[in-house]
Amino acid sequence: MTKIKVSIVGASGYTGGELLRLLLFHPNVEINQVTSESYTGKFVYKVHPNLRKATQLKFSSASELQQCDVLFLCLPHNSSQNKIDFYKSIAPKIIDLSADFRLKNQDEYEKWYGHKHVRPELLKEFVYGIPELHREEMKNANYISSAGCNATASILGLYPLFKNDLVFEDRTVIEVKAGSSEGGNKVNEGSHHPERSGVVRSYMPTKHRHTAEILQELSFGKNIQVHFSATAIDIVRGLLATCHVFLKKDLEEKDIWKIYRDAYGNEPFIRIVKENDGIYRYPEPKLLSGTNYCDIGFKKDENSNRLVVISAIDNLMKGAAGQALQAFNIMFGFDERTGLEFTGLHPI
Amino acid sequence: MNAECPVCGAQIQLAADAVQGELIECPDCGTELEVVSVNPPQVKEAPQEEEDWGQ
């Protein structure tokens, strides 16, 4: 079997490490190089101890990159766009896990990211990386921009409602509770254990950049508003998005079930989680650690037209590395679930 | 012929040996259902014990 030769640029971060963990066991992949400027020459297990004995790979410098079939870019935001021509010269296909090419509109990019895009003419070359929305485009894509974690959970939770024009366009409120790994592996005063442990910290009540992706994917040509807030809580992996929307017409829960079943009934990584009994009646991020699932639940307010949609993912998996691998599988015509079969742990 | 879950609308195929009064679970929403009739297949939500949930 011919294997796809891949390299990971920026493999010492949490997302790069997670992607490496997945790719090492993918039957159709050969890993060429993994790069890190901080750890050049070091074994990858020195940084990602879970990969001890799984590989003898060492980090290279990005300047030593050799030709390969696919480059995964796991760099900080505002890095990929500055060297995109170099990366394009290394591989014909690129999956960028940063935010650099997620937005299609240059003005929106500059509004939300506060600086000019270096290569705005390339924005439209990248397919936005949520497979459930853009599967067909991915099949022929050369460039994919993996979606933001908070955006992924929010978009997947709300997509069937906006697509079917079922909710008022100006009244969507999303509150995301997020784990510490969303902040990456760079330390700061706020991540110091005595400060970070036990927090319920409102770190972005407004103006979160992922809002731009949510607007882009849910607007369907209309002028919509999404009111997004994010709160850091005391977990390492995972996030829970609680979305409040207001229905245009009086739908019963059975109707809403049908809408979600129609949208996601055949999706391998989306599960509707809404039960009347048991311990886990609605989506719970801790059950999703290490998995590529997005669990979605909902509850209609009996006293109003409010619908609460709850979605959960592992931010490093469906919110980053897992989703990128899912996109890779689609790009090359592999079974979408290849390398992503892990169903999680219980108890955990 | 399938029964329809009264909670989530899922189509539920009753087992060949299903009997009236039997309790089954909806594979989609997990609701416990009582088989009201086998022919035609019909189910209703089974009575639940109230739980102390969400204090």
Helix-strand category of chain A: alpha/beta
Largest sheet of chain A: 7 strands, parallel
Query: What gap, in angstroms, lies between the N and C termini of chain B?
Result: 42 Å
Biggest β-sheet: strands ordered side by side in the sheet of chain A:
3-2-1-4-5-7-6
Query: What is the number of domains of chain A?
Result: 2
Order of helices and strands of chain B: EEEEE
Count of extended strands of chain A = 14
Give the oligomeric state: heterodimer
Question: What's the overall geometry of chain A?
Answer: globular
Reported by name, the CATH topology of the largest domain in chain A is: Dihydrodipicolinate Reductase, domain 2
Strand order of the largest sheet of chain B: 3-4-5
Shape type of chain B:
globular
Helical residue percent of chain B? under 10%
What CATH architecture label of the largest domain in chain A applies?
Answer: 2-Layer Sandwich
Q: Give the biggest beta sheet of chain B.
A: 3 strands, antiparallel
Organism (chain A): Stygiobacter electus
EC number (chain A): 1.2.1.38
GO biological process, one term (chain A): lysine biosynthetic process
Pfam families (chain A): Semialdhyde_dh, Semialdhyde_dhC_1
What does this structure look like?
The complex is a heterodimer of chains A (348) and B (55). Chain A has 348 residues and is of the alpha/beta class. Chain A folds into two domains: 4-146 and 320-331, Rossmann fold, CATH 3.40.50; 150-313, Dihydrodipicolinate Reductase, domain 2. Helix content of chain A is 24%, strand content 21%. Chain A has helices spanning 14-23, 84-90, 106-113, 131-139, 149-163, 193-196, 210-218, 253-264, 321-331; strands spanning 4-9, 29-35, 59-60, 70-73, 93-96, 127-128, 143-145, 172-178, 201-204, 226-232, 239-246, 270-272, 294-300, 306-313. In chain A, helix 4 runs parallel beside helix 9 (321-331) and helix 5 runs parallel beside helix 7. The longest helix of chain A has 15 residues, at 149-163. The mean pLDDT of chain A is 96. Chain B has 55 residues and is mainly beta. Chain B has a single domain (3-45), classed as Rubrerythrin, domain 2 (Single Sheet). Chain B has strands at 3-4, 11-12, 23-25, 32-37, 42-45. In chain B, the strands form two sheets. In chain B, strands 3-4-5 form a three-stranded antiparallel beta sheet, with no helix packed on it. In chain B, a hairpin with a 6-residue loop joins strand 3 and strand 4 (32-37). Chains A and B meet through helix 8 of A and loops of B.
